[in-house]
Design a protein that fits this description.
This protein is α+β, with helices and mostly antiparallel strands and 341 residues long. It has helices at residues 2-9, 18-21, 35-38, 65-70, 83-115, 121-142, 149-155, 160-169, 171-189, 203-214, 219-226, 230-233, 251-259, 291-304, 309-322; strands spanning 57-58, 61-62, 72-76, 79-82, 192-200, 266-271, 274-284, 328-333, 336-339.
Length: 341
Amino acid sequence: MRSLIAALLGLCALTCSLAADEPAQPGTPAPGQAAGAAAGQAPPAGPPPQTAPPAGALGGQPLSASAFDADPIATVCGTPITRKALLDQLLVRYGQAALEEIVNRTLAHQEVKRLGTTPTPEELEERIALKLRLSEAEIRHESQGKMGLEQLLAGKGETVEHLKAMLRTSEDFQIAVAMEKAVRFLQLTEERVEAQHILLSDLEKVKGIREQLASGADFAKLAAKESEDTNSAIHGGKLRPFILGFSGQGYAFDEAVFRQKDNELAGPVHGDGGYHLFRVLSRSPAKPGTFAEWKTQAWSSVLQEPVSGREVQLWLLRLRNANRDRIEIKVGVAGADEKGR
């Protein structure tokens, strides 16, 4: 329940600071301005009004960047703590995660723009309505029918209409819907494979099982008996058909599968969870066309089954790998030393 509340109400915080930042209305005196001056009358004679020093100023003189960083923000028993010390600590502790988020967000923006999946106002309204229906059902289920969305929001001083208004103007929500459309477009049009695999964490054991398979042992029986992927083991190692990057077994595994010829034993390949032996059972060819030609089907697919958070993660990972030679994170930024991570 807490995670759902956070998802529903997180956007409310975006408006908390707006009132303080609203510009003065026409005809309203600015702070420190005489009423007569606001009405168009000449201000009384006298010395020019004093203006507040700019942010980052000391004694009315602007500080240089180095001086600003060195300006203490706290002292502990006489020892100063500077802004630079604070920022350095934040960068070490949280910088890598923040940088990863910015890189992923930038890639997502670039890709939805390239594909043209930005949602229309009508699509946003449909998706908001679906989000609220699903949230209502989940809240009632988790509260055993004792509470609905309206009551939950009311307890936080919010309303359904206010939530709708925030979602309509939320850039985060719009990019999320655009990503949903991009994911469903890929899943509708890209080449899809069905594969069978055996996953083990012990490389030596993998080599032994590979020898058995090469000697004619039954793949499905060995998968059922030996594979550590229990979800597929009960189906003889068969994975659900997937497009590149969406097997859930790791991108290296997917790349190897899509390069492999059908019905040939392959591996071991190191992927998520360990080492994989696999073979490709069948393929469905890609379906040509641009997003504009598939937008109706893609949107219908979103409304039938909203894209999961896991699918979005796999989509972003696929983007990272497809662009790894074009992503450069410089040494020393958030403790990173990589190219195309």
